[in-house]
Design brief:
Length: about 100
């Protein structure tokens, strides 16, 4: 499930038994590219291995993702409702792009 995080335009996902999240799987990233992603996701996220099903082949495989505060119940209290790309991200796209540019 992709949750809305209080006062943030991007979502947080949690590991849930019956949960699923649609996404894009990147392959062939270098160690330095993974370190950049780790820095970008910051301390509120933890990289974790999850089971995924590829859409085009329906093959099951493993992939890394970033879970939101998997061991921090206080931070998890900031999760509420379902995050929507159209409702929670698109209205803030310009500010988000600027933040990403400043990060790099």
């Amino acid at each position: 499930h992709r949750y809305q995080i209080l006062d943030r335009v991007y979502p947080g996902i949690l590991r849930e038994e019956s949960g699923s999240v649609d996404g894009i799987m990147l392959q062939g990233l270098s160690g330095s590219e993974m370190r950049i992603l780790d820095l970008f996701e910051d301390a509120d996220y933890e990289r974790a291995m999850v089971s995924v099903q590829l859409v085009d082949t329906e093959e099951d495989t493993e992939a890394l993702t970033y879970l939101f505060a998997p061991n921090d119940p206080v931070l998890q209290e900031h999760l509420h409702g379902t995050w929507s790309y159209e409702d929670h991200f698109l209205p803030h796209l310009e500010e988000y792009v600027l933040m990403c540019q400043q990060f790099m």
